[in-house]
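Weekly modeling sync, notes
Attendees: AB, CL, MP (scribe)

Item 1: holo prediction request
CL wants a bound-state model with FE2/S2 (inorganic) cluster before deciding which constructs to order. AB pointed out that an apo prediction alone won't tell us much about the pocket. Agreed to run with the ligand included and paste results into these notes for async review.

Input as submitted:
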Amino acid sequence: MPSSVRMTVNGKAVSGTVEPRTLLVQFLREHLGLTGTHVGCDTSQCGACVVHVDGVSVKSCTMLAVQAEGAKVTTIEGLANGGLHPMQAAFHEHHGLQCGFCTPGMIMSAIDLVKHNSDPSEQEIREWLEGNICRCTGYHNIVKSIKAGAAAMRGATK
Ligand code: FES
Ligand code: FES
């Protein structure tokens, strides 16, 4: 039976009627039109669907919309605040993307990493990204981007 769900997405209160099996990523993309969150595998392998739920990165294909009831959700669309988020700017500047399919998930995961570890080493970045798959870049520029994004985020909070 469909049920109603309410949450805050990118600072806005939203609600909708969903099937019990509706995934959070489907709610975001299909009900709210927030198509910046991508679906690569649907089986929790690729990380293209990462969003923040109550500040923590979550693969939104692994969570039901109803499980996010009352939560604060941030998607890639919610990051830019009068200009690119420092992590987005770093990916742009350091060529951290090619086709861009994995990029929203990479950026959301990277921001969560930097919240835990403000100056991650290359090794720590590579370990953190184990759940994020990129089929294009070979990761070198992604790691470089995250290093630069972390430095910019440190600067922004000083
Ligand atoms: S679509 Fe969610 S992990 Fe791939
Ligand atoms: S840039 Fe193409 S999948 Fe990562």
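Recorded for review: The chain is about 35% helix and 15% strand.
Action items: CL to compare against the apo run; MP to circulate these notes.
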